[in-house]
TrEMBL record:
Keywords recorded for this protein, A-Z: Methyltransferase, Mitochondrion, rRNA processing, S-adenosyl-L-methionine, Transferase, Transit peptide
Listed GO CC annotations: mitochondrion
Subcellular localization, as worded in the UniProt entry: Mitochondrion
Keyword Hydrolase: no
InterPro entries: Alpha/beta_knot_MTases, MRM1, MRM1_MeTrfase_dom, Ribosomal_eL30-like_sf, SpoU_MeTrfase, SpoU_subst-bd, tRNA_m1G_MTases_N
Residue ranges of domain RNA 2-O ribose methyltransferase substrate binding in the record: 75-158
An example molecular function term from Gene Ontology annotations: RNA binding
CDD domains assigned to the protein according to its UniProt record, in alphabetical order: SpoU-like_MRM1
Species the sequence originates in: Ornithodoros moubata (Soft tick)
Record protein name field: rRNA methyltransferase 1, mitochondrial
Main location, first listed in the record: mitochondrion
Keyword Mitochondrion: yes
Assigned protein family: Belongs to the class IV-like SAM-binding methyltransferase superfamily. RNA methyltransferase TrmH family.
Length: 335
């Protein structure tokens, strides 16, 4: 007999019989099947299916499920972060963990995103380790894992010294847009900004060393894997970096909540103003905005105007939402 809270169940020859009131086992007033009960116990569902001999090596028996898992590096999770990490090859890969039922689906082993993940992992000598859904939830701390997680070395920002002098000079054949994230702390905001930046063609991302959110698996998931492929640089002295770009002819565009900031400019005006220039867009901290020592160096401070009558407590946008709007407008004007 096993107990699940107030639920008592006898398991007889693989079937389940409820003891209370002589009825079938119920959960939240809904009948529970034998397969559902197995899930309640943390056991994976095992579907009967005909499989070719070539696919049997992918299909784990229950006793082959990995029980003791030690994470060596960062645990990347989700389909696209895992796929793009394998494609970018910026990390060292240790283990690939896959929900056991996904490995039992023969049709998915060679098609779609999951099939591509297995193919790339195999090319790099990485074998998929079957784990239960409950194990993945414990490893990922209840985050949405999509049945895939990968243990890999952490990512760190690249030192800004790696950028060549020619890249920082103004040229006539191209007008790049770079983004400086000034002390963004929330990993979900960080990831969302990276996703928008990649989508709109931002070439380089800069962060402030020791004062920014680390390049974590949560950031990678929130960015839908953009973290894995973008060039992200670390600045020890953002003021010095901004000053160098200004001397080289770049336009420095800060961001502000409203028109009260020095050199403020509405977004629709800034789009035309910045369309044919080398631009560094600076996005500020969630609570404090762009720090004064950097804001004072900006040629213009762009704001996204609100509708009339908006309550003061709702007078600004989330930093990731505002950045997405800014990038859309600035990139549209540069097309």
């Amino acid at each position: 007999m096993k107990k699940f809270g107030s639920l008592e169940v006898w398991r007889v020859f693989g079937s389940c019989v409820g003891l209370h009131t002589g009825c079938a086992v119920r959960r939240n007033n809904t009948p529970v099947s034998g397969v559902d009960l197995m899930e309640m116990e943390g056991e994976p569902q095992r579907k009967r299916s005909r499989t070719s001999p070539s696919m049997k090596s992918f299909i784990p028996a229950a006793e082959k499920l990995k029980h003791n898992i030690t994470v060596k590096g960062d645990l990347i999770f989700g389909l696209y972060p895992t796929l793009l990490s394998l494609q970018a090859r910026k990390r060292e890969f240790y283990n690939l963990y896959v929900k056991a039922s996904k490995l039992q689906d023969e049709s998915g082993l060679t098609t779609g995103v999951f099939g591509e993940i297995l193919k790339l992992a195999d090319e790099q000598g990485l074998k998929a380790q079957p784990v239960s859904s409950a194990q993945l939830r414990r490893l990922i701390k209840e985050e949405v894992h999509q049945g895939v997680a990968m243990d890999a070395s952490p990512l760190a920002p690249v030192e800004v010294s790696r950028i060549s002098a020619s890249e920082m000079e103004v040229s006539t054949d191209r007008c790049p847009l770079w983004v400086l994230l000034d002390r963004i702390q929330d990993p979900m905001n960080f990831g969302a900004v990276l996703r928008s930046s990649y989508y709109f063609g931002v070439e380089k991302i800069f962060t402030v060393k020791d004062e920014s959110c680390r390049l974590s698996p949560v950031v990678s998931k929130a960015s839908s894997g953009a973290l894995e492929v973008l060039d992200i640089y670390s600045l020890t002295s953002p003021e010095e970096f901004v000053t160098t770009l200004k001397k080289n002819g770049w336009t420095i565009a800060g961001t502000s909540a409203d028109a009260t900031c020095r050199n403020s400019c509405a977004l629709h005006e800034a789009s035309a103003l910045l369309s044919q220039k080398h631009v560094l867009l600076i996005v500020g901290n969630e609570g404090k905005g762009v720090q004064p020592s950097i804001s004072s160096l900006c040629d213009v401070n762009v704001f996204v105007g609100s509708a009339p009558g908006v309550l003061p407590t709702m007078g600004s946008l989330n930093v990731s939402v505002a950045t997405g709007i800014l990038l859309h407008e600035l990139c549209r004007g540069r097309a």
